[in-house]
Every structure is written in C-alpha cells, then in structure tokens.
Amino acid sequence: MRVLVVDDHVELAETVAGGLRREGIAVDLAFDGLTALERAEVNGYDVVVLDRDLPALHGDEVCAALIRGGSRARVLMLTASGRVADRVEGLALGADDYLAKPFAFAELVARIRALARRAQPALPPVLIRGELRLDPARRTASRQGRELALSPKEFAVLELLMGAQGAVVSAEELLERAWDEAADPFSQTVKVTVSRLRRKLGEPQVIETVERAGYRL
C-alpha cells in the first residue's frame, strides 16, 4: 500500500515514516496542508495519515478537500486532543478514523492496514493462490509450506500480484503502490525486484510477464 503522512512535527513524521517503511509500506511525507493536497492530487494513496493542526492549510480543510475531490484515499486523522467532542468533529468532517496523540505505533499500523483494506475491493486477510500463501498482517509468505525470506519491496510486489487475483498488474501500478515518490519512474527498479522475487519463489515460475502490459500470477 502507499501512505501519505502529513504532520508539521518533522521529527515525528519522519519517525513514523521510517517505522511504516520497515513494515513494507511505501510512504511519502508532507509538512503542511497545501503540500499534502498537492501530493494527493498527483499520487494514488490508499491512506492519508493527517495531523489536524497544520500550517498553510488546516487539516480539517485538507480532509474536506480530499473528499470533495473524490479521493479514494482513506483518512486517518491525528490530533493532540483526545476529547470526545474533537473526535466526533473530525469524523463529521469525513475522516474515516481518528487517533489521539500520543499513540502506540502498533495501533497506528493496525488502523492503517484496516483502512487500506477498505480502500480496495475486499480481500481475505490471508492471500492464497496455488502453492503461495501470504499473510500481510504477520508479514509472512510461503510456497508449499516453505517460508520465503522477502525484502519489503519483494513482499509488497507479491502482495499486489496476489491481490490482483490473476489480473495483469502494470509496472507503473507496481511502482506507484509499492514505492514512494523518490522512486525513478525511468529506472529498472520494478523489473529488478520482480526478477529477484522470481528467484526466491523458485521453480516452476509463477510470475508471468505479459508483453507491453505488466505481470500476473
């Protein structure tokens, strides 16, 4: 999945982003409301983690603008206030979930994953296709019961391919949803990652290259 973290507390935002990336999640950052909207207009995020008190454009206005613009991203609103009235107000603005600071990182990850599932067509919590089994919550993948030692990007690519349920996934979509905006769209990143993933999955090969279209399982 791909997540946008919006918080003017730079150190906190970068810490959260680093933790999410270790969970295999692609993360972009914005430190004010206007930049957040610019990022959201360009990139297809699954979840926006949105601090409410932002400079340039308040988090409430960012949330409202995302909804008016028809964004498919789910919004997890953050605030330093844990008052019920604030939570109700945030949800009334159209936020999908609400989390008060300080928060436990494990809870943040769980809420992001739950929201991301709602942003996509419903999929089972554990993905199974043929001999492959992938558990996104536990970050485990196996083939014929053999555990696979996958990098975060390899895991993300396999999760996207399995979630597509046999449909072709383009290299552009893999790049957009498994990497962040720092990825070079003209690089061979996706091709190299798929090649490594194929080697780790072993024989017979299960990832098919569809000429001028992408990849599928």
UniProtKB/TrEMBL annotation:
Span of domain OmpR/PhoB-type: 124-217
CDD domains: trans_reg_C
Domain Response regulatory: 2-116
Coiled-coil ranges (or none): none
Short name of any one Pfam family annotated for the protein: Response_reg
Entry keyword set: DNA-binding, Phosphoprotein
Any one GO CC term of the record: protein-DNA complex
Key word Phosphoprotein present: yes
MF terms (GO), sorted A to Z: phosphorelay response regulator activity; transcription cis-regulatory region binding
DNA-binding residue intervals: 124-217
N-terminal signal peptide: none
Presence of the UniProt keyword rRNA-binding in the record: no
GO terms, biological process: regulation of DNA-templated transcription
Modified sites of kind 4-aspartylphosphate: D51
Protein name: Response regulator transcription factor
Organism: Streptomyces mesophilus
